[in-house]
């Protein structure tokens, strides 16, 4: 079972440059959450802060009741055992075959026998569809297979939290679709808490239980996917529709008058309670594949129903 991550008032800077400030959110245990945002908004920095690789200037990150921002290195090392991380490129060792890459954390951090390691590695390779590729080197396989190998390696220590740093980068749309289904299936099977940083809007619409958006050094919104996908917030609508009109510019800053003019031209300037032709549509969430059962998560269902009820009230 995954664990809840509670972030309160988190602020991170590099020198005089504020990356984001006063970020507060709760990643619900066992659910899939996605963090969106334009390039350069510090999404990967946020992941590194959650796992304790970067220290924030202010705020707290509570995992299993412990604030990792205040832990000593030894205690932080223990908390990090809860995490599995899938990096953008899979971060595989080029000189090792896939089997040895995936076995590496077990050999490094446990005292398990080679027979036990083999059982675990083959189990995880089977989960991500890599059985038969044990002897292949990372340079001999496709980008999609490298991602799956990196995911298998992230799974071998049975983490309760898995962080995905742009898992879809460098993949074609078909491989992204397969990866999305794999993520949904894995979450149903292992019930860990997932946080995915991505730019892929189709993935953000289909995969998560919850969505957040970072923009202009702050967390604009975080909540059930239904709330974000039907939001009237201009920056949320612009990003999810992938259009130029709105607060996000090439350099991330736009003049307020220009934004207002662009939104008015689109019919998005009508204010709260106004539903325009450009309103967000609610994409169905991906379901686990055949034979994979995901037990009902009543807290998530209650949050979704509350978000949809609130949207119905606004429409009325």
Automatic annotation (TrEMBL):
The lineage of its organism: Bacteria, Bacillati, Actinomycetota, Actinomycetes, Kitasatosporales. One of its GO terms (molecular function) is ATP binding. This is ABC transporter ATP-binding protein. It comes from the Bacteria. Residues 5-241 form the ABC transporter domain. InterPro entries: AAA+_ATPase (IPR003593), ABC_transporter-like_ATP-bd (IPR003439), ABC_transporter-like_CS (IPR017871), P-loop_NTPase (IPR027417). The keyword Transmembrane does not apply. Residues 266-295 are annotated as: Disordered. PROSITE patterns: ABC_TRANSPORTER_1, ABC_TRANSPORTER_2. Pfam families: ABC_tran. Keywords: ATP-binding, Nucleotide-binding, Transport. PANTHER family: INTERMEMBRANE PHOSPHOLIPID TRANSPORT SYSTEM ATP-BINDING PROTEIN MLAF (PTHR43023:SF6), PROTEIN TRIGALACTOSYLDIACYLGLYCEROL 3, CHLOROPLASTIC (PTHR43023).
């Amino acid at each position: 079972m995954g664990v809840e991550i509670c972030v309160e008032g988190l602020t991170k800077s590099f020198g005089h440059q504020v990356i984001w400030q006063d970020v507060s959110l709760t990643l619900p245990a066992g659910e899939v959450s996605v963090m969106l945002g334009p390039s350069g908004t510090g999404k990967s920095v946020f992941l590194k802060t959650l796992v304790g690789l970067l220290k924030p200037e202010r705020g707290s990150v509570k995992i299993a009741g412990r604030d990792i921002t205040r832990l000593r290195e030894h205690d932080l090392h223990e908390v990090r055992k809860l995490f599995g991380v899938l990096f953008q490129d899979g971060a595989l060792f080029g000189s090792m075959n896939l089997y040895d890459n995936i076995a590496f954390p077990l050999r490094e951090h446990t005292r398990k026998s080679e027979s036990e390691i083999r059982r675990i590695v083959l189990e995880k390779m089977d989960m991500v569809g890599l059985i038969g590729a044990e002897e292949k080197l990372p340079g001999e396989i496709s980008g999609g297979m490298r991602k799956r190998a990196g995911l298998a390696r992230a799974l071998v220590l049975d983490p309760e939290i898995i962080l995905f740093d742009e898992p879809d980068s460098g993949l074609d749309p078909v491989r992204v679709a397969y990866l999305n289904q794999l993520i949904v299936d894995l979450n149903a099977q292992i019930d860990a808490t997932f946080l995915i940083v991505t730019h892929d809007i189709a993935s953000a619409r289909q995969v998560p239980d919850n969505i957040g958006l970072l923009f202009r050094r702050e967390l604009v919104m975080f909540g059930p996917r239904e709330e974000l996908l039907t939001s009237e917030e201009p920056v949320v609508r612009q990003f999810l529709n992938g259009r130029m009109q709105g607060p996000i510019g090439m350099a991330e800053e736009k003049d307020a008058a220009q934004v207002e003019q662009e939104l008015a031209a689109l019919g998005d300037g009508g204010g709260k309670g106004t539903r325009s032709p450009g309103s967000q549509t609610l994409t169905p969430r991906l379901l686990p594949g055949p034979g994979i059962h995901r037990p009902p998560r009543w807290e998530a269902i209650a949050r979704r129903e509350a978000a949809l009820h609130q949207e119905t009230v606004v429409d009325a």
